[in-house]
């Protein structure tokens, strides 16, 4: 899950990283009150889950309270790459002498953590990588061994940062790595990491992505509550379903993320357009199936529903009973096509057989089911 900048800074601060004082607000009046408490000058910063805020006018310097009021009024409601600004971060302004870039993420191919550090901060790292790749110092850290101070120091020296802040940079980066690993993050990025005129290394921006599957180790509820979800995704999330809304007409239900992705792909392959990705996981009982069908049924764009189940631990007769009972609970507006295979699939298909009609169909293969679902969505199916 992606965090807003202010949440990322709160996350960093919990590990002792130096961040600027600030307050998150949602109204112009609250922005003014926050600025008065902090004392101008301040920065008025849009909080959205996307980059390019500065270029879009979402980050403004305010020398006084009148400027805070003006900028807050202009930024709230601003559309930045499809994200409408509803939250602002009012932050004490910082003087900048130098700007750096620092991050940790996972290099899956190397099966190690990847750290990137550059003396060219304040711009998109992709641009630096393209125009001057030698300006990025990289380090690969074995998760078992971790990042040692000596390795970190060599990394800092390789990045050609100001020698006067080497010790500070090493300490900060070791702490950043600890936040990344102990906090179960997929990405921690500081851009820019600044040096102030009086020689302090300071976190000026924060981009953090946390692993939502690590919720049993952390309280992720405050972050989860601010995740951007459309109405369909919010309804699915409330039911504990793994759902991503798309823009097509074929509703997709599958068990397992891999099968769900394959189902989306095969719908595209046969010329259709999936309306969603929906993974019901290992359970396909009536409650889960009813919840999944209700979410998809509430999407007016859906013209047909493709249920693709491969039973492993989940048995075919359980899936069939779940579908039958779910249809009694939910008034489904679109025809459904079922592909059922795997454990006890014959028993499941036998249970479904008496219920088949032009509104509930079965297909022997995933490809046949996809073709039928697409034909129904286009109004050409039987």
Task: Describe the fold and architecture.
With 382 residues, the protein is an alpha+beta fold. The protein folds into three domains: 72 residues, 2-Layer Sandwich (Dna Ligase, domain 1); 125 residues, D-amino Acid Aminotransferase, Chain A, domain 1; 147 residues, Rossmann fold, CATH 3.40.50. The chain contains 13 helices and 18 strands. α5 packs across α6, α8 runs antiparallel to α10 and α10 packs across α11.
Q: Give me the Rg, rounded.
A: 26 Å
Supply the CATH architecture of the largest domain.
3-Layer(aba) Sandwich
Structural class: alpha+beta
Distance between the termini: 42 Å
Q: Give the uncertain stretches in residue-range form.
A: none
Report the total helices: 13
* Total number of strands: 18
Return the CATH topology of the largest domain.
Rossmann fold
Helix content: 25-40%
Which word captures the global form?
elongated
CATH homologous superfamily (4th level) name of the largest domain:
Succinyl-CoA synthetase domains
Throw out a few tags for this protein.
382 residues; alpha+beta; D-amino Acid Aminotransferase, Chain A, domain 1; Rossmann fold; 6-stranded antiparallel beta sheet; 4-stranded antiparallel beta sheet; 13 helices; 36% helix; elongated
């Amino acid at each position: 899950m992606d965090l807003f900048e202010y949440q990322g800074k709160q996350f960093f601060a919990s590990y002792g990283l130096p961040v600027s004082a600030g307050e998150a607000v949602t109204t112009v009046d609250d922005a003014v009150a926050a600025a008065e408490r902090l004392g101008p000058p301040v920065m008025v910063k849009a909080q959205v889950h996307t980059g390019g805020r500065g270029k879009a006018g979402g980050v403004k310097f305010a020398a006084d309270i009148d400027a805070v009021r003006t900028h807050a009024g202009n930024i709230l409601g601003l559309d930045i790459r499809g994200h409408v600004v509803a939250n602002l971060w009012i932050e004490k302004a910082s003087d900048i002498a130098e700007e750096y870039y620092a991050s940790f993420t996972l290099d899956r191919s190397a099966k190690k953590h990847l750290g990137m550090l550059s003396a060219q901060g304040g711009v998109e790292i992709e641009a630096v990588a393209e125009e001057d790749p030698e300006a990025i110092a990289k380090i690969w850290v074995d998760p078992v061994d971790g990042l040692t101070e000596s390795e970190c120091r060599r990394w800092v020296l390789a990045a050609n940062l100001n020698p006067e802040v080497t010790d500070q940079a090493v300490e900060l980066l070791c702490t950043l790595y600890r936040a990344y690993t102990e906090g179960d993050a997929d990405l921690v990025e500081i851009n820019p990491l600044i040096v102030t005129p009086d020689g302090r290394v300071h976190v000026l921006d924060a981009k953090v992505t946390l692993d939502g599957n690590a919720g049993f180790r952390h309280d992720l509820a405050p972050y989860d509550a601010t995740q951007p979800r459309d109405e369909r995704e919010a309804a699915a999330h409330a039911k504990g379903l793994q759902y991503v809304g798309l823009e097509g007409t074929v509703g997709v239900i599958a068990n397992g993320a891999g099968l769900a992705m394959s189902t989306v792909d095969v719908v595209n392959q046969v010329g259709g357009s999936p309306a969603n990705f929906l993974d019901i996981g290992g359970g396909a009982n009536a409650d889960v199936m009813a919840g999944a069908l209700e979410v998809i049924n509430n999407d007016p764009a859906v013209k047909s529903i493709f249920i693709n189940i491969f039973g492993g631990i989940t048995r075919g007769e359980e899936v069939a009973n779940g579908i039958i009972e779910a249809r009694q609970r939910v008034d489904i507006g679109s025809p459904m096509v079922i592909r059922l295979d795997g454990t006890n699939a014959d028993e499941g298909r036998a249970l479904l057989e008496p219920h088949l009609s032009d509104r509930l169909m079965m297909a022997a293969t995933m490809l046949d089911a996809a073709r039928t679902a697409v034909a129904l969505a286009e109004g050409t199916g039987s």
